[in-house]
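Here is one chain, start to finish.
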Amino acid sequence: MFAVSSLWIALILVVGAFEGSRAATQMAPRPQPSGLAPAQEAAVLAEMGDYEGAWRLYDEALQAAPEDAALWYALGVTLSRLDQRQETEAAFRYVVDHGKPDSEEVRLARQWLVAAGVLAPQVAFSVAADAAEATAGTAVLKGRATWEKPEADRPPLKARLVLQGLSGAAEGKRFTTRVPLGQAYRFDRLPAGSYRLVGSAAGHRLWDLTLSAEDGEENSLDLGQDNSSNPSAELYL
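Its structure:
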């Protein structure tokens, strides 16, 4: 009788120890990255598949470094995994507009925007061709390109302005510049003649105007919704 009781007691102790070990294992918290900067922790969470957590931490990191194009790119990749199309587009646009032109982040962000149909493929112009086109003149065209203001946490978009010569010494000449909306633009050393000015941003054609320039003249032309060919365009969706 004593031997049987001893066996039962031993069995109970073994089972109890096993259950306690299993409970401790089940209660153990999931290991979390610690001791890292928000951007580093976000990268770890993204690798673990926790894109919501990574999104939150990338936002936190951008509050401290709002002009870091690499952070914007990492945020864009995370948002794309969450199917947040508009937010992804805004993040990648910031990378394209503010990142180093020859960086991998800019190349991949532009590739995503082109594939999404929100950005036209980039056209390369040779330096020799640009120099041949730019016959020196003395006219100037300047002004400010403005549109509705973006939300406080969104960077302004850049407008692409193309000035095409139609007649006179300007005929056949082409000048291009990019300017953040809300800031001033300027074309210098323009040959005299008539021009067509076409401006676009975020895939929308905003301006299509004609003007003339005389040698030695400094012409001012502000661009906004009041002289836009598409004044109802919503750039910041």
